[in-house]
Amino acid sequence: MPTVKVRNLKNKEVGDVELLDSVFGVELNESLVHAALVNYQANGRQGTSATKTRGNVSGSGRKLWKQKGTGRARIASLRSPLWKGGGNVHGPQPRDWSYQMPKKMRRGALRSALSERLREGNLIIIDEFSFAGPKTKDFLGAVETLKLSDGKRKKVKTLIVDSLDNANLVLSSRNVEKTKVTNSFGLNIYDILYHEKLLISKSAIEELNDLLDPKREGAKEKGEAPVKEAKPKKAAKADEPKAEEAPKAAKPKKEAVTEEVKAEEAAPKAVKPKKEAAADEVKAEKPAKKEAAPKTDAPAKEKTPKKPKAEKEATDTE
User: Fold this and answer.
1) pLDDT tens per residue across span 100-130
2) Which H or E element spans position 316?
3) For position 226, what pLDDT does the model report?
4) Can you name the residues that pair with 6 across neighbouring β-strands?
5) What does CATH list as the number for 3-44+99-220?
6) pTM attached to this predicted model
7) Distances (CA, A) of 220 to 104, 131, 215
8) According to the 3-state scheme, what is the secondary structure of 75-136?
9) Burial (0-12, 13-18, 19+ Cβ within 10 Å), 36
10) Could you tell me if residue 85 is left (phi over 0), alpha (psi between -120 and 50 degrees) or otherwise beta?
11) 305: phi then psi, degrees, rounded to nearest 5
12) Domain map of the chain by residue range?
């Protein structure tokens, strides 16, 4: 666990703070940080840019001159995109640019950026931002003692993370350029990357450990999940002692067969469904087909041979 020295507003060391490796000791993931930054900027876009099409610009819709015979190019309307003052083609229209990024990815990008600022030495932990009153002069004096600005050189972009209930801090710093005050819940990836120095109070560090620790996130999710109550199992019935049955005498085979036949005859016949019963009745009503007559062994008639045509003609003439 990395340890960082805690300073007061007079730039004197007051103590040490141990930071979580899972929050402030993460490797830099450039692609994840870039994706989180693009998402933040896209969600901040207004999306109100618009252009006028040929249906929105002012102008007459009358045909200016006839189609043929003038020697000029044909034209249908003044609002054509080809003319000056006409409509715009394929121009931007109002739209919503925002999209949602997974919560674990956003928090992972914050952890990566904070860890990188700590490795650079640009993360300073302050014991407490206490001012007697809301005065910009006192705030500027504290910034100079922390060596964050000098009158001879440009001021450093500074992000202060503390509770917004500290009214003296908020009022003292709101008129100072390149300085922003936020709380641990409002910390975002853009502010961490844009500002060069991060001043975080000791109480805000504890809040960030709670918010960004992946182990505690998983524990909270598990705790919030509804736990199903186990249904009480039915009480097992006491095992009652079963009476031992006396062994039955074995019957001879013939008697056993006759008893089975009697039981089958005594059992009621299964009732057929209505459809099958109706089909059986229809079959009973139809007359049985006539059986084919038996074949007799009578001798078949002999076929007389046909006379030739010439003989037939002779007999006809006679």
Assistant:
1) 999 999 999 999 999 999 999 899 999 888 8
2) helix 309-317
3) 45
4) 15, 125
5) 3.40.1370.10
6) 0.62
7) 14, 36, 9
8) CCCCCCCCCCCCCCCCCCCCCCCCCCCCHHHHHHHHHHHHHHHHHHCCEEEECCCCCCCCCH
9) buried
10) left
11) -70, 140
12) 3-44+99-220
